[in-house]
Amino acid sequence: MDKSTSILIIYTGGTIGMVNEPVTGTLVPIDFRHISDQVPELRRFGYRLETVTFDPVIDSSDVSPETWVKIAGAIAERYDEFDGFVVLHGTDTMAYSASALSFMLSGLEKPVIFTGAQLPIGVLRTDGKENLITSIEIAAARDNNTPKVPEVCVYFENRLLRGNRTTKYSAEHFNAFTSPNLPPLAEAGLQIRYNRNLIRYPTVRRPLSISTKFDTGVGILRLFPGLGRSLVHSMLTTEGLRGLILESYGTGNAPTLAWFYDELRTFIAGGGIVLNVTQCPAGSVEMGLYETSEGLLSAGVISGKDLTTEAAVTKMMMLLGSELSGDRIESLLSKSICGEMS
User: Are 280 and 168 a contacting pair, CB within 8 Å?
Assistant: First the structure.
């Protein structure tokens, strides 16, 4: 029994925390203070497990930057008290939240593992028990008193993925998440095998600090054949819009339409920022590789390389919410700050 190891479980909401109400049969949130009643296997760890439950719990479709600030605050408030943190979260926006937390938690040296379930923990075939048990084990894993994975991650169906490289790709399968441009940081089979060469370890030690200001003046424009000028113009002239995530074709290509580049140049000249990511499930933006992306370069569009849309949105929101200059924001958008791009 290892009572010296302590893990804080933060339940924000989501399918994993649901059980059948005995009388009506409807799904209701459980009291996570009694999680060991639902998952008695947790007692065998011998860890000190404590829980924090959001009140009210939040469906992941209702997650907002305020939710991210609340999660980060719960971690920061008790950071010195625990060896690791497990965040239970709905699957629909988990990749956004994990990405956001990776940018918010500066100086992080402990594991923050997001997990959840496709089936409620009170259902016989639930995937929630294994996800929770293994997430706790990973959050507690140490070598020579050093955490094995001092990052914000997503654990789901036997794979540990870097949080800001993760996207949800299945609404049906237990294996709901993928990391298209980075292999898993760990894989759980008979043993948990860690890919140490991929895990980020701190090179400079500094106290944990959290960024809490987000600017939600960000839009996403996904290119498609037949996209018209009126739609693009109305989006780029939306009041309060400061940043645009452009989901382009292939390696960063866009239609060679003069009006399209005129609209982008006008937006950028007015102080707007446009970040180009690929709408392909995997791969990277390489502007200039084809003629159809040269116009984006000349218009002042920034390459997002292999950023996921989730990481691009949350990174841009956080940087726009900072007091940094426009040039500095553009510089940080084009480079990796916590492993979010290759």
Answer: no
> What's this model's pTM, rounded to 2 decimal places?
0.93
Q: Is 91 a catalytic residue?
A: no
User: Where are the extended beta strands (E) located within 91-238?
Assistant: 105-106, 112-115, 142-143, 146-147, 152-156, 159-162, 167-168, 177-178, 186-188, 192-194, 209-210, 218-222
For residue 25, is pLDDT > 70?
no
What is the average pLDDT value for the chain, to the nearest integer? 91
**C-alpha dihedral sign at 223, 228, 234, 236:** positive
> What average pLDDT does range 234-260 have in this prediction?
95
Average pLDDT of the residues in 42-64 = 89
Question: Got the DSSP string for 277-308?
Answer: EE-SSS----TTSSHHHHHHHHHTPEE-TT--
Find the catalytic residue in 15, 126, 178, 314: 15
Contacts of 211 (CB under 8 A, 6+ apart): 103, 104, 106, 318, 321, 322
**pLDDT tens per residue, range 75-88:** 999 999 999 999 99
232: which DSSP letter? H
